[in-house]
Recover the amino acids of this structure.
């Protein structure tokens, strides 16, 4: 009986000791954890700034060309791949998964290409491959001649459903900056 009472007393003492130790640890760890969180934030901000600086150095605004891809609805076309050519040279290609198609259909925009292009006229060609109406293989291209000047050039490859003829439409749109 006395042994049981002693064990219960020892357990109570141990529980109180753990509670006090946890309170002390929490009090001392709180400023330390705040410092760690501040360091994490600073590291993330520094990483972001470095990525922006790297992109500005690698792709200066006067030679920069960026090409995005978007899809509207996707009822008449399922994208399998896209190949981007600038002046008959392949500069980007991508194979699409079901999840990537879903993201594009829900309004996502993919940055397909970023690179340096000389000033002057350039022919942009995008070749789209996928499944069209009635699950038939479909391969179409869209071409546009753009004039590159000293400002960055941003283009959008658009895949849209044309309900009038129940076919997909492919075009290239230049963004106004």
């Amino acid at each position: 009986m006395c042994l049981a009472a002693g064990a219960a007393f020892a357990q109570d003492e141990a529980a109180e000791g753990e509670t006090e130790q946890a309170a002390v640890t929490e009090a001392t760890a709180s400023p330390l954890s705040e410092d760690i969180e501040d360091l994490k934030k600073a590291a993330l901000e520094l990483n972001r700034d470095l990525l922006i600086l790297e992109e500005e150095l690698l792709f200066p605004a006067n030679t920069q060309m960026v090409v995005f891809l978007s899809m509207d609805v996707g009822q008449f076309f399922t994208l399998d791949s896209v190949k981007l050519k600038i002046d008959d040279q392949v500069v980007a290609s991508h194979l699409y998964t079901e999840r990537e198609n879903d993201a594009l259909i829900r309004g996502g925009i993919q940055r397909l290409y970023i690179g340096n292009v000389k000033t002057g006229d350039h022919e942009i060609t995008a070749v789209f491959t996928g499944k069209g109406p009635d699950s038939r293989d479909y391969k179409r291209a869209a071409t546009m001649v753009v004039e590159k000047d000293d400002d960055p050039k941003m283009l959008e490859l658009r895949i849209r459903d044309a309900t009038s003829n129940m076919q997909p439409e492919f075009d290239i749109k230049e963004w106004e900056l």
Summary: The chain is about 35% helix and 40% strand. Residues 64-174 form one domain.
